[in-house]
Amino acid sequence: MKNNYYGFRMNGFVYDHFYNPSPKDITTHIHDCYELYYYISGDLTYYIEGQAYQLKPHDIIITNRRELHRIVFHSKEPYERRFIHFKPEFASSFLQGETFNPFYYLEHRKLGFFNRIDGKEVLAGNISELWDRIEELSREDTPENHFMIKLLFLQMLIEINKIYSRNKDIVTVPAGNNEKIVDILEYINHHLDEKISLDLLEDKFYMSKFYLSHIFKKSTGFTINEYITYKRIIKAQELLKKKVPVLEVAYAVGFSDYSNFYKAFKRIVGCSPKDYAK
Length: 278
Hints:
The chain is an alpha+beta fold. It has helices at residues 89-92, 104-108, 119-124, 127-138, 143-166, 179-190, 198-205, 209-220, 224-241, 246-252, 258-269, 273-277; strands at 5-10, 13-20, 26-29, 34-41, 44-48, 51-54, 60-63, 69-73, 79-86, 116-117.
């Protein structure tokens, strides 16, 4: 890259190409959209919902709107990546009346599983060339190029679906190789409306809460409380979109009082629950 950053935006679609000669860890976050992340270089581990992915050049990471993720760097090796953020409605106008759903595997993956597409398959499917062409077209802001970007992006999704359909066992590395962590994550995700404490998890999973806290952070990159809070806020966003009253939402996702819910929501989402609901 000639510059360290290039970005392009159109309605429902964001393209971003970034180079950092001295990267810092990227903290836990979620997106209110889907993300396709194209890895180019850097010494890192990509954590998603209890999985730890060690990446190779041209690997693609896919996350949906419910998956917590973060990146931990192991050295100051220069970091370069591209990503696309998009919402399904960006391409939905092309799909009216069609039986093929290019979002199928993005929406139906189990949380934290099959996030990585191997770089060899990315190259074999010419997906890398599609990324290059999208970036090239985005540099000239015309209606014709916007239309072509949408077509190329749909072609990319079709190729990704082909890879998923023939590779149901795409390689994932269980975080810390600890299957119990996956069980704990599933338990948390199914009991967000209830009180979840370290003492409860200790009793349920027959592990010292101190050891549990240690292996959870080591395996997932998140603290237990951090993970629970983020997942509760994700659930709250879903309920607010369904027009559930704000106070009801706070208690429905496990907060004992509105004040704590408000503070957590604003810190993570960037606005108040009421503003988000609007």
